[in-house]
Design a protein that fits this description.
The protein is α/β, with parallel strands linked by helices and 293 residues long. The protein contains 10 helices and 9 strands. The chain folds into 2 domains: 182 residues, HUPs (Rossmann fold), CATH 3.40.50.620; 93 residues, Pantoate-beta-alanine ligase, C-terminal domain (Pantoate--beta-alanine Ligase, Chain: A,domain 2, 2-Layer Sandwich), CATH 3.30.1300.10. Strand 5, helix 7 and strand 6 form a beta-alpha-beta unit. It binds adenosine monophosphate.
Length: 293
């Protein structure tokens, strides 16, 4: 069964009847694609109730970003979730999907809303440098949604790896009773990560978008196959060469645990890139184990 809840009040009434059920939560901006669907699938597998929130959160968009034009497709999203529910053979079972799609911004941010959740150490790098305030907007809305939804588990894609780490740290610091579940990146056949923003791309931009994925892949191969003392200068060279293309916002590597520069004991390296194609900015990342001698 699928329910659609358009206000916090409606959601609260729905939530009151779920006391003994396990609740999985998938927060999204909507315009669902196969990346989102993989999170919902995993939640359906492991929880009685799966709640998908669809809310284009104004606080996480900068003044010159795509808040206005961000695709709002609640009808299509609902159909995709219905189709998933059917194809997973859940009709007639106790499993349930609820879509929490607040009809207005006031449902999440009532008049005079004044809280700001900020994790500056993890936020002031990578995407945070070019998108000031973005991660405060994300952590604030996720905290607020956690308070409304009160999930047992929350599913986040590693496509937004920095976001995942920030929410994980927020949960730890605030001792929230939510288990965060990271999910692998879903990709198109040619390797481009699914993103709602891919549809903004022209044909040529779509072809060039592969530079992002391919460069990260190239760096990953070097790190995977070479001891770190040799891999590091080799990937520094690839990065310096690549950055001559001014479409890169950033292309770098950090310790995937804390987004600090790698140290001697760094185990898993995160390779991070953001690439601009016209007005569209795409991000991607790959994780790779460092090989020590
Ligand atoms: P968004 O609607 O962009 O805020 O994304 C909602 C959730 O879906 C976030 O946890 C994202 O990391 C996740 N997500 C987006 N794209 C992908 C993808 N290609 N693969 C896996 N997860 C994704």
């Amino acid at each position: 069964m699928i329910e659609i809840l358009r206000s916090t009040k409606q959601f609260d009434i729905f939530r009151k009847n779920l006391d003994k059920k396990t609740i999985g939560f998938v927060p999204t901006l909507g315009n669902l694609h196969r990346g989102h669907i993989s999170l919902v699938k995993e939640s359906l597998r492991n929880n009685d109730i799966t709640i998908v929130s669809i809310f284009v959160n104004p606080k996480q968009f900068g003044p010159n970003e795509d808040y206005e034009k961000y695709p709002r497709t609640l009808g299509d999203d609902t159909n995709k979730l219905k189709e998933l529910y059917r194809s997973e053979d859940l009709i007639g079972t106790d499993k349930q999907i609820a879509i929490f799609a607040p009809e207005s911004i006031d449902e999440i941010y009532p008049d005079n809303f004044s809280v700001n959740i900020s994790l500056p150490e993890l936020s002031n790098k990578l995407c945070g440098l070019n998108r000031p305030g973005h991660f405060d907007g994300v952590s604030t809305v996720v905290y607020s949604l956690f308070s409304i939804v009160r999930p047992n588990k929350a599913y986040f894609g590693q496509k937004d790896f920095q976001q995942y780490l920030i929410i994980k740290k927020m949960i730890e610091d605030m001792r929230l009773d939510v288990q965060i579940v990271p999910m692998p990146i879903k990709r198109e056949v040619d390797g481009l990560a699914f993103s709602s923003r891919n549809q903004y791309l022209s044909k040529e931009e779509r072809a060039d978008a592969l530079i992002l994925t391919r460069t990260l892949g190239e760096i990953k191969n070097v790190v995977k196959n070479t001891i770190w003392s040799e891999a590091k200068p080799a990937i520094d060279q690839i990065i310096n060469e690549s950055l001559k293309d001014t479409r890169w916002d950033y292309l770098t590597y950090l310790d995937s645990k804390n987004l600090e520069n790698p140290v001697e004991k760094t185990y898993m390296l995160g390779l991070f890139g953001a690439f601009k194609l016209g007005d569209t900015r795409l991000i991607d990342n790959k994780l790779v184990e460092i090989k020590y001698a």
